């Protein structure tokens, strides 16, 4: 078979099994190469090597800080074939014209993707959360805008997602009670002055600190997912004051950086992503990922197709997107605390103990390994925040690009320099 025609069918011709689907047969010519730009969250070497082996294509990963890669992708569609980040990047990329529609008919597991991405709720009674719930950005409408009506074309592949919060060192800070005493407000608690860090990403760190200000009773918002300029000004007046008083040890730009800050004892509490917490626990640092009483800041991973990606590279990109939902990658990513959009397929690649802990919120029946092969969960330990459904029923706000986005960028820059 010619490689082009085989690739065209590979996006849909995946079969269940130990591997997930057959590798692409290599023709006389070199296999296609796709470039994937994103963050360290998903651009991990073990994933790249496995995908290359199973698909028979070449894959190049280009990880970086969230603000850095978003800027690059929004300026040059030729710099990547696939872009992996979070749903708050979609409006920027779509308006910049650097991504193209994805055809759901080419996604083998589209019908398995759960309701979280398609309706905003993992269960009907769940709290929707302020801001850009993913369904608001998923479907490309007939007029070219993004919305919630299914059109057969989507702006991103829904895959990895999670609820984010703050991590704290329980050897220094007494463990709190999930959903009762644990609070975003700890980021602005004077007791931890000089021992606090936040993520250096305006569309993420902004909400962490807004939830902290609200948690401390310092201010409130009419709609935290759609702040006014007046509210932004007041928030940064508060944050600048705390910064001048030495509240923050600094900011971090990548998961390894956040791990270093806590592992070396520079911070006791900070904004964190789940892989950082898992890594710290594997290193013996008793880091707890809080279940804040104010609710989580949630995000949904997006995999976007460059507007410059075409022909053989586009076919390989579809095969890679389908590979991500084939089961093994979802099981792999669960071991660092992340969820996948079609979890039941990932379940077949997880032990009963792993599924019970990561998805059902039950105590671990045995020690569980993280993606690095180290023990990240001890026997008897229970995941903070409980089950998948409970965590996603307590969303305060989704990562969002607000109408005042450009203004918040300037204010964030001023905050860093204050």
The average pLDDT is 91
End-to-end Cα distance: 62 Å
Structural class: alpha/beta
Percent helix, as a range, is 25-40%
Q: Unreliable segments (pLDDT under 50, ≥5 consecutive)?
A: 1-27
Strand residue content: 15-25%
Number of helices: 16
Q: What's the gyration radius in Å?
A: 21 Å
Q: What's the main sheet like? A: 11 strands, mixed
Q: Quick one: how many beta strands?
A: 17
Q: What is the overall shape? A: globular
Task: Give an overview of the whole structure.
This protein is of the alpha/beta class and 418 residues long. Helices cover 34% and strands 18% of the residues. It contains 16 helices and 17 strands. It has helices at 3-10, 45-55, 66-75, 90-96, 115-119, 135-138, 202-215, 229-244, 255-263, 274-282, 311-324, 328-334, 343-347, 352-358, 388-391, 405-417, and strands at 33-38, 58-63, 82-86, 99-100, 102-103, 139-140, 146-147, 153-154, 157-169, 196-199, 248-252, 269-272, 287-289, 296-306, 368-369, 375-377, 395-398. The strands form 4 sheets. Strands 1, 2, 3, 4, 9, 10, 11, 12, 13, 14 and 17 form an 11-stranded mixed beta sheet that branches. It has a two-stranded antiparallel sheet with strand order 5-8. A two-stranded antiparallel sheet has the order 6-7. A hairpin with a 5-residue loop joins strand 6 (139-140) and strand 7. Helix 1 (3-10) packs parallel to helix 11 (311-324), helix 8 (229-244) runs parallel beside helix 16 and helix 9 crosses helix 10. The longest helix has 16 residues, at 229-244. The chain is globular and about 60 Å long.
